[in-house]
């Protein structure tokens, strides 16, 4: 998949605020491609196949995984969800970057499958205490659930050395965090190994 577009994988523990930051990043960088995920669950009212999701059977989904046509996937509440290689190609081949907001396991899958095209960024809260506060402020988490998510966060952060970047999402500074991500995107396109073809061509003129 040699092209100008790159996949920027944004992930992090529950309470890191990745959803809010990614939403803001898309607002300030509207050219970033949005991947339509595949799922085995039934469509909900108003959802359109190919727009909301690619709705497929479990048999089809498993076949896609087996044939290497899924970048990353996970199972949630008995349904499979994943990012199709064809979706990545559609966006990247057009010369656009793509943002994937996915879990840590999925991020590492993408890095393994597309090491030259994928850039992984882990977002973390400024402290464990702040992470717990954010989870409590949701009003949907039990104390048991919060404890489990905090414990899981420690396991996920222990994998930070497999990421290309780690960004702290300070409370109340969504814009600043999104700007950090935009700076990373710009810097990645200026890496020497990505610019080498241009440099070689320049020197041959």
Task: Describe what you observe in this structure.
- The protein is α/β, with parallel strands linked by helices.
- The protein folds into two domains: 1-32 and 97-205, 3-Layer(aba) Sandwich (Rossmann fold); 35-95, 2-Layer Sandwich (Guanylate Kinase phosphate binding domain), CATH 3.30.63.
- The chain contains eight helices and nine strands.
- The strands form two sheets. It has a five-stranded parallel sheet, sandwiched between helices. A four-stranded mixed sheet has the order 4-3-6-5.
- The longest helix has 16 residues, at 174-189.
- The model has no long low-confidence stretch (mean pLDDT 87).
Count up the helices.
8
Low-confidence stretches: none
Strand/helix succession: EHEEEHEEHEHEHHEHH
Work out the helicity level: 40-55%
CATH topology of the largest domain: Rossmann fold
Beta-strand fraction estimate? 15-25%
CATH homologous superfamily identity of the largest domain: P-loop containing nucleotide triphosphate hydrolases
* Proper CATH architecture of the largest domain: 3-Layer(aba) Sandwich
What is the residue-mean pLDDT, rounded to a whole number?
87
How would a crystallographer describe the biggest sheet? Answer: 5 strands, parallel
